[in-house]
Known about the structure:
The chain is mostly beta strands. The protein is built from 2 helices and 5 strands, in the order βββββαα.
Amino acid sequence: MKISYDAEVDALSIIFRETTVTTKRLDDGIAAEYDSEGRLAGLEILDAQKRFGGRETMRQIVLEGLAA
Length: 68
């Protein structure tokens, strides 16, 4: 999984798998990306600072329950 934040456009990207995707708009500024088999491959969220509580939130990522 790859999580990235682009401060220039205030967009958060969560990629579960690198593949060719089809994007489906879920809400204004939120889109889901699906692979060719219809499985969720990623999420794109615009206006991330506003949605998630500001600049401090974008500086911290906590991962829990990672299995090998």
